[in-house]
Structure prediction request, 379 residues.
Amino acid sequence: MKFNTKVIHAGIEPDPTTGAIMTPIFQTSTYVQASPGNHKGFEYARSQNPTRSALEKNLSALENGYDAICFASGLAAMDAILKLLSPGDEVVATNDLYGGSYRLMTKVFGNYGINFRFVELEDAGSIRDHITDKTKMVWIETPTNPMLNIIDIKAVCEAVKGNDLYVVVDNTFASPYLQNPINLGADIVMHSATKYLGGHSDVVHGAVIVKTEELADKLHFIQNAVGAVPGPQDCFLVLRGIKTLHLRVQRACENARKIADFLLTNEKVENVYYPGFEDNPNHEVAKRQMKDFGGMVSFDLKEDTIDAANAILSKTHYFSLAESLGGVESLIGHPSTMTHASIPREERLKVGLTDSLIRLSVGVEDVEDLISDLKAALG
Ligand SMILES: *Cc1c(COP(=O)(O)O)cnc(C)c1O
Prediction:
């Protein structure tokens, strides 16, 4: 089955009791047994729920995995993955991670004896310098946020081959439509389904897709034992969102390219960060591992001040000022005062995250309207 067919059909069967074409929302906490242990595969809804199972089958197919396991949020999914580790284990992670991921690693798992190293991985081979016999996990996020750098997933996987560790990719920014890390050698893929998978800014949800039965068994065990499961209504919303994933992401990519081109020509703009530009240092890797260059664009201003950025942030009409990304509606954000405010300014500046840097999550509106909106705000 090809991708655009999978989003609609993989794991989805008409409901056997009614023929309902849409997967029903099984809003139940338990299931009746004919006699003790004699049931239809469902005992208690923390352990199994048919709406969740349909979504897990669908996600597994989208990422070419062995299985998928769903959680109440992206961070709950990440929490389950990190629980594969034991005290004394080390994780090597890319250095410009989603802020919440960094917080979960350092402020929560750091207290349980897991050690984290945050490293720059634009030269994928350099990861070998950071691997010790205690390293049990490599954590990659690509494209990165908000600088939209690209990490070469295949090259990282090849560089660590032979070591007893899992390679995990947070695939939230790309979505399975653009990038499938398991095909490139990763063991585990994580998604904040709150973003492109859900796609309509109406649900918080997380997913893990794994390459092997062994990992599936371990993560289903953690899912049931810890209990951070999503409700059936949320699973339904993600299932429904996924049905148009290919259309939404394709249009977001088309719009993002036109907006990036427009920003380049604007006299107030200093740098435009977009991996689709041929002279972007990450362009070749992006072209190799992604189907298109994504719906995110960042830029900063010649007048590099928070005030100059604020003047634009408060003037856009269709770009709403908000955190999050990946929905049908366009969003605008200011990393240095919003998502990345907890990172010291010197650290931010080192990676190019200037005071005036603005991040766009480009939606699926008419691109002419989006460009006029930015033009007026910059004007
Ligand atoms: C939003 C996000 C998360 C966290 O997901 P939640 O659903 O908000 O818990 C993790 N990684 C990335 C890249 C994200 O954008």
About this structure: Residues 245-265 form the longest helix (21 residues). The pocket of pyridoxal-5'-phosphate is lined by residues 73-75, 98, 100-101, 141, 145, 170, 172-173, 192, 194-195, 204, 206 (CB under 6 Å). The first strand starts at residue 67 and ends at 71. DSSP finds 13 helices and twelve strands in the chain.
